[in-house]
Amino acid sequence: MFDAVILAGGGKPEPLTEQEQVANKAFILVNGRPLLAYILEALQEAPSIRAIAVVGPTEELNKLGDEGYKFEIVKEKGSMLDNLAAGFEAIDQDRLCLVVTGDIPLINAAVVEDFLSLCEPYDHDLYYPVLDQETCVHHFPETERTYVRLKEGRVTGGNVGLINAKWYLENKDRLEMFISYRKKPLKMLRLLPLTLVIKFLLKKLSLSDLELYLSRLLRLRAKAVPCDHAELGVDVDKPSDLAVVKQALSR
Q1: pLDDT digit string (tens) for 83-103?
Q2: Would you list the domain boundaries of the chain?
Q3: What is the CATH number of domain 2-250?
Q4: How many angstroms separate the Cα of 7 from the Cα of each of 53, 83, 87, 98, 197?
Q5: How far apart are alpha carbons 9 and 57 in whole angstroms?
Q6: How far apart are CA 4 and CA 140, in angstroms?
């Protein structure tokens, strides 16, 4: 079984939060429930999830806990990396931990279980879901995603990961630039050696190439996990995303 950490920390004011009159998008209401509640429900119903820690604003999280959701409250620290470290310090660090962002309310227990099963035999330090453009567009044509062309096709990343918590706490500083460029593929290319850049330009850069390079760069064992659950890629970053989520949840 696995522990889970949900990153529900607040950030700077943005058009979406101003539109919805909230300080933190994880608490935007859809059908009378905050986005975070849908994620908690998915994790609580997943048989492989043992315990849940949520990093975010304590006052709002206390209110959510009073509604019957079971999780440990971890006070947010500031940056995403600091919040993730705080979350890892609250769970069992001797096992892989499922990390979930607090803005993907379309996931459910089946999606969580299937992603975890795709990560077997759990002998790596980092598992990251990779979604192909065709799947994402088929299920959610209205969403705007950032795609990168690889040998396998045009792909994007999901908003979860299975991570070795102990490795992360010992190597957090190595991830600063990688995390800051996670939605900026052109800047991400600057981290690659020339040989891989040439492969990318020739459309021959593969997932295995990236796995090998990231493993060396971050001093861990990284694994890309091709996945057909488009729900993992639908994060609520802007008003148009929220409209898609509201429509999907209303169904």
Answers
A1: 999 999 999 999 999 999 999
A2: 2-250
A3: 3.90.550.10
A4: 9, 7, 8, 11, 32
A5: 6
A6: 26
